[in-house]
Q: What sequence folds into this?
């Protein structure tokens, strides 16, 4: 008997089968010529489930609150680990405690950032005439929508258009039936933008970047402590806004340039935090016991002033370019609301 | 025909058709869970009737190997036996009998219906790595890992694309462990 071979293409997303605490298999989804293949991998074996395109009746993507749950857990861990060091630093002013607080905050903050940027969590089920099966690998909404956008035309092509009699019995099928002749309504690689966004958060982010650069310049020129505090507050606000902007832009109608500038701003803040952390460590090692409250104490450190000036200028440039892209977006007439 | 409604995957309540095939998430009326429900034409169609085998009416007609009173419609492409419509199983355009289907599944020759495979490269790697946690157990684990990696080198791997690096890694780790233990025992015996 000739061996029947099948070629598979890996689909995005990976997940685990089991409960949130205990999982017994890693799960991935593969695209075959005429079917989807779900592979559950345990220590030394694989289990396969095939879903042929002509058998698939429905695809259900349900949003879950798992992302928020993990963010809360990481947030509590952040507070429990960084909080005590921060409190000691506040009372004693020892730079080492501040570094420890930042290290813990950055560690758990990174988990929160990655978890947030991966998108909302969801459970995806596939239904055939005889089964309702969960696809653990499609556990994030953007990934599930990307995969659905990719397989939807294949399923419709395999099943053919619904007949007029079938459509009369189920008017909701019109969209799927139309998809046999028209291309898929989703754009390749992601869900269709569905939310009109005028770019207020992005505008705020780029404005904060410019303001922060001005505050840093004033603080360093005039050795002004309140200005340093304000610039730190601006940095904190900007960092939060950059995360929020990148998270929210996924399903918006913002142009690519605005989205890219938001990502650049986020990378800028991550790098700035890393550079600041390195300088704080160097300062704490070189000046043990010296209190460090505003950052102005580090002005004497080699290269610190130049680095601060360069990062401030870079921030101003990103902010300016970002504002230009947002203004360009605002000049476009608003999209007509969906019927 | 009334189509079978899709149920909410959280509360199992039937979702009203108004929530189907919308580009955004919609709330389940029963539990409030937000979901996107994409329904395809297959949901509207009743399952096809099962094939019914014809009874032989004229003497001398070819009969099914498994049902002597039923008319043969096709030969099995694997064993050549005549099959009636009931015994004819179509798999990717090929007509095979239930016995060949079962044999093909057991021998792993039919990838299309295979639902489980042992991955010997992963097994070898696991046997090479996990015993290292207890250190001494790797004396037994390393030779077993080496044996599994070599013995099953040509065994069928996953049905999806998969490299050989796990088997190579298992061999390297196992050889290093065996070398390390040998060197240690030689050093102990000399001292």
A:
């Amino acid at each position: 008997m000739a061996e029947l071979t099948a070629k598979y293409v890996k689909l995005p997303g990976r997940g685990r089968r089991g409960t949130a605490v205990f999982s017994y298999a890693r799960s991935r989804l593969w695209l075959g010529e005429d079917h989807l293949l779900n592979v559950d991998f345990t220590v030394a074996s694989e289990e396969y489930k095939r879903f042929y395109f002509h058998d698939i009746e429905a695809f259900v993507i349900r949003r879950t609150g798992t992302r928020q749950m993990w963010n809360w857990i990481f947030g509590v861990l952040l507070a429990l680990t960084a909080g005590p060091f921060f409190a000691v630093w506040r009372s004693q002013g020892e730079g080492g405690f501040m570094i420890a607080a930042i290290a813990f905050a950055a560690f758990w903050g990174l988990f929160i950032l990655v978890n947030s940027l991966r998108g909302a969590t969801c459970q995806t089920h596939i239904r055939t005439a005889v089964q309702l099966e969960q696809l653990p690998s499609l556990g994030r909404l953007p990934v599930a929508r990307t995969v659905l956008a990719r397989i939807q035309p294949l399923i419709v092509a395999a099943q053919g258009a619904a007949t007029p009699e079938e459509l009369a019995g189920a008017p909701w099928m019109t969209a799927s039936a139309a998809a046999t002749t028209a291309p898929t309504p989703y754009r390749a690689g992601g869900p269709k933008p569905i939310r009109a966004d005028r770019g207020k958060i992005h505008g705020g982010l780029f404005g904060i970047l410019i303001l922060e650069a001005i505050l840093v310049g004033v603080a360093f020129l005039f050795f002004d402590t309140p200005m340093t505090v304000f610039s730190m507050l601006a940095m904190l606000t900007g960092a939060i806004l950059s995360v929020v902007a990148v998270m929210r832009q996924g399903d918006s109608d913002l142009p690519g340039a605005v989205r890219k500038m938001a990502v650049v701003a986020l990378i800028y803040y991550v790098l700035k935090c890393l550079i600041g952390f390195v300088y704080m460590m160097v300062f704490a090692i070189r000046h043990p016991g010296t209190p460090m409250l505003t950052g102005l104490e580090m002005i004497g450190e080699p290269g610190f002033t130049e680095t601060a000036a360069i990062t401030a200028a870079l921030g101003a440039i990103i902010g300016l370019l970002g504002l230009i892209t947002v203004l360009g977006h605002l000049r476009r007439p608003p999209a007509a609301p969906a019927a | 025909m009334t189509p079978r409604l899709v149920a909410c995957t959280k509360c199992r309540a039937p979702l009203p058709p108004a929530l189907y095939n919308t580009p955004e998430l919609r709330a389940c009326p029963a539990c409030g869970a937000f979901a996107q429900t994409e329904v395809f034409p297959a949901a509207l169609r009743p399952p096809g009737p099962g094939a019914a085998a014809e009874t032989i009416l004229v003497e001398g007609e070819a009969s099914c190997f498994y049902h002597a009173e039923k008319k043969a419609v096709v030969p099995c492409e694997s064993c050549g036996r005549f099959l009636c419509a009931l015994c004819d199983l179509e798999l990717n355009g090929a007509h095979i009998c239930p016995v060949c289907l079962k044999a093909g599944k057991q021998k792993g020759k039919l990838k299309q219906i295979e639902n489980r495979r042992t991955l010997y490269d992963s097994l070898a790697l696991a046997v090479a790595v996990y015993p290292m946690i207890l250190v001494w157990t790797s004396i037994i684990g390393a030779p077993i890992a080496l044996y599994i990696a070599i013995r099953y080198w040509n065994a069928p791997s996953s049905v999806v694309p998969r490299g050989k690096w796990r088997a190579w890694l298992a061999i390297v780790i196992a050889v290093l462990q065996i070398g390390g233990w040998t060197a240690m025992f030689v050093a102990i015996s000399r001292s």
Remarks:
- The mean pLDDT of chain B is 87.
- Chain B touches chain A through 56 residues (CB under 8 Å).
- The first strand of chain B starts at residue 26 and ends at 27.
- The first helix of chain B runs from residue 98 to 106.
